[in-house]
Design goal:
Blueprint lengths: L2 E3 L8 H5 L5 E7 L5 E7 L19 E3 L9 H11 L5
Antiparallel strand pairs: 1-4, 2-3
Length: 89
């Protein structure tokens, strides 16, 4: 399991400062439907599920993968694909 950043991200950067494995990256990911997401992303392969990032987010954009709200679940895929596609990272 990993943590996931959703579209409420404002790129504040507080989460970057606390991540012990540097798995959070800023970038722009263009989804297959053409939607561009300019935000921070969590690499699900590198995330160690420590949870330090979640309370640092001022916009509550970060969730444990199992706690992502139903209307934001597509961000689980988006965070994965952002890194797998090479668009972020």
């Amino acid at each position: 399991m990993a943590y996931v950043i959703t579209d409420a991200c404002t790129k504040d950067g507080a989460c970057l400062d606390v991540c012990p494995v540097d798995c959070i990256k800023e970038g722009v990911f263009t989804d297959s439907d053409g939607t561009a997401y300019d935000m921070l992303f969590i690499n699900p392969v590198e995330c160690i599920d420590c949870g330090l990032c979640e309370p640092e987010c001022p916009t509550n954009a970060i969730f444990a993968e199992t706690a992502v709200p139903d209307d934001k679940k597509h961000f689980i895929r988006i965070n994965k694909e952002a890194f797998a596609s090479g668009q972020v990272g």
